[in-house]
Amino acid sequence: MTTSDVRDINELRSVLDRDGYIVIENVGSTENAEKLLSGLGSILPQYDGRKSHEIVVTPGFEDLLHSKTSREIYVHTEAPGWDPVPQYLALYCHAQARCGGGHTTICDGRKFLADLSDRERELMYDVETDFPGAYGTQGKDGEAEWTVHKPMVSRDVDGTEVIRFSYTHLTFGDYTPDLGRDVFVDRLPLGEEGIALAEHGTRFFNDNHLPVLVPDHALLIWDNRRMFHGRSSYTDQRRHLTRFFVGA
């Protein structure tokens, strides 16, 4: 695991370009985290319009695959329905789980792309997929406010690949699905082929991910346009992290 006390922005960018992620220890506060992240790019609003999102078990989300539960969260990149997607995601840890779970799991998406079959490569590079997006309502009884039509792998203005991937979007047709809802395959973004691709992504992720238990008062940053992430389930409801989105 890449762990550092680095504060120099150029060095930080170098590590992120090389490894895709970094854990910075002894950051000390969300204010310090925000100040550090603002050197990488602009702090973007969360889905509800606020500049940060508190990841802590919250009543009312029990039936959803959502960050505010203690459930496992499946492999995905963040905000695929935004264009551009956030360049970086960051988690500042107030209190980590002490139960043996609650790991943030990350994996290099570029390595998954190298593992694709010819047909899977067509699906990810050539087939435009509908990615719904929203502010304020996404994640609980909300309707999409717009839809991004892009392949799962596109390129940004400098030619760098941008990966959009969501197991739940491909298998439920929703980023944070209600687990009791019926699923109709013909309404899914890529139908049966999308389900098979999502299952391949999950197998690859399970075999290759790095489990990160962010230390208290530390900051995990990763490249959201490259890295897949998820979370292991946990029982320690004291776990509390703050999430930031950072633009390029």
UniProtKB/TrEMBL annotation:
Source organism of this protein record: Streptomyces mirabilis
Listed InterPro entries: AlphaKG_dependent_hydroxylases, TauD-like_sf, TauD/TfdA-like
Name of the protein in question: TauD/TfdA family dioxygenase
Keywords, comma-separated and alphabetical: Antibiotic biosynthesis, Dioxygenase, Iron, Oxidoreductase
Domain TauD/TfdA-like: 8-243
Signal sequence, renumbered to the chain: none
Pfam families to which the protein is assigned, alphabetical: TauD
Cofactor entry: Fe(2+)
A single MF term (Gene Ontology): dioxygenase activity
